[in-house]
């Protein structure tokens, strides 16, 4: 009997401990305000926006983030020639048929950022959730960086609190400080909810707020296209198939009516 109760009690204690840990995590998370996502402008059908987004991607993102499922030659679909791709969007000894990989090693990433930066090939699909699309997430994320001296990089983010990367576009957006206020959570007065109330611009950026939002929209549109380069063709094909099915259904209905008109 004793040998039976001992493992059972141990499992119950472990279960209780795990439950307390999860409750503590949930309580800590409840103190963070979930920032609503802004809707990203749809520009996947805008070739100029995609070309600008590709330029931004190779200048501001690919230094740390790879896109290992995308080849440089695929940028031809954006209306770019091999010469334009090689002279404007490729650096180092990469070749037109190579994938978009980075020189930074995993050991360097761990040392500088504490983790390996994620690959961005299909990041817009990976970040989709109940909050919104992955495109909306990135659009909001890249516009909500702020200075935070408590972080190792000196930066933090409203969408991703405690983010490990600095703001890659800070020269365009400028540096900002975020302001918060703490008040009891209406749903649970025992919990203090930290709420964002606004920014203070510390240093000006190279672009105005409107220009910067448009720049981020172009960059995010490119990453949305990169996650599925054939999406425009897929949608056009879908429309063609629906039209065909509609005509085929009409013809079938007329044929059925003609065939059965003399049957009573």
Descriptive keywords:
single chain, 264 residues, alpha+beta, Cytochrome Bc1 Complex, Chain D, domain 2, 2 domains, two-stranded antiparallel ribbon, 15% strand, disordered N terminus
List the domain count as a whole number.
2
Sheet bearing the most strands, described? Answer: 2 strands, antiparallel
Strands of the largest sheet, in order across it? 1-2
Distance between the termini: 82 Å
Strand content: 15-25%
Order of helices and strands: HHEHEHHHEEHEEHH
CATH architecture call of the largest domain: Orthogonal Bundle
CATH superfamily of the largest domain: Cytochrome c-like domain
What does this structure look like?
- With 264 residues, this protein is an alpha+beta fold.
- It folds into two domains: 31-229, Cytochrome Bc1 Complex, Chain D, domain 2, CATH 1.10.760; 233-264.
- Helices cover 47% and strands 15% of the residues.
- It contains nine helices and six strands, in the order H-H-E-H-E-H-H-H-E-E-H-E-E-H-H.
- It has helices spanning 2-30, 47-60, 82-88, 106-113, 123-126, 134-141, 170-173, 209-227, 231-260; strands spanning 67-71, 99-100, 145-147, 155-157, 175-185, 188-203.
- The strands form three sheets. A two-stranded antiparallel ribbon has the order 1-2. Strands 3-4 form a two-stranded antiparallel ribbon.
- Helix 2 packs across helix 8 (209-227) and helix 6 packs antiparallel against helix 8.
- The longest helix has 30 residues, at 231-260.
- The chain is globular, with a radius of gyration of 26 Å.
- The termini are far apart.
- The model is unreliable at 1-5 and 7-30 (pLDDT under 50).
């Amino acid at each position: 009997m004793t040998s039976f109760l001992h493992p059972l009690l141990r499992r119950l204690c472990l279960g209780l401990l795990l439950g307390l840990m999860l409750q503590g995590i949930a309580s800590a998370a409840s103190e963070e305000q979930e920032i609503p996502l802004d809707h990203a402008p749809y520009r996947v059908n805008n070739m100029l926006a995609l070309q600008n987004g590709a330029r931004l991607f190779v200048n501001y993102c690919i230094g740390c983030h790879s896109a290992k499922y995308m080849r440089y030659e695929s940028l031809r679909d954006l209306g770019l020639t091999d010469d334009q791709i090689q002279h404007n969007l490729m650096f180092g000894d990469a070749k037109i048929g190579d994938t978009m990989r980075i020189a930074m090693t995993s050991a360097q990433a761990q040392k500088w950022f504490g983790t390996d930066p994620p690959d961005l090939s299909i990041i817009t699909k990976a970040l989709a959730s109940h909050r919104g699309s992955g495109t909306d997430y990135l659009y909001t994320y890249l516009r909500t960086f702020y200075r935070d001296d408590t972080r190792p990089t000196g930066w933090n983010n409203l969408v991703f609190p405690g983010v490990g990367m600095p703001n890659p576009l800070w020269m365009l957006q400028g540096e900002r400080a975020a302001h918060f206020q703490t008040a009891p959570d209406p749903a649970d007065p025992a919990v203090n909810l930290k709420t964002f109330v606004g920014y203070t611009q510390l240093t000006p950026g190279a672009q105005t707020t409107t220009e910067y939002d448009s720049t981020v929209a172009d960059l995010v549109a490119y990453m949305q296209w990169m996650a599925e380069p054939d999406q425009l063709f897929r949608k056009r094909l879908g429309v063609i198939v629906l039209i065909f099915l509609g005509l085929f259904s009409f013809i079938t209905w007329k044929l059925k009516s003609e065939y059965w008109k003399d049957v009573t």
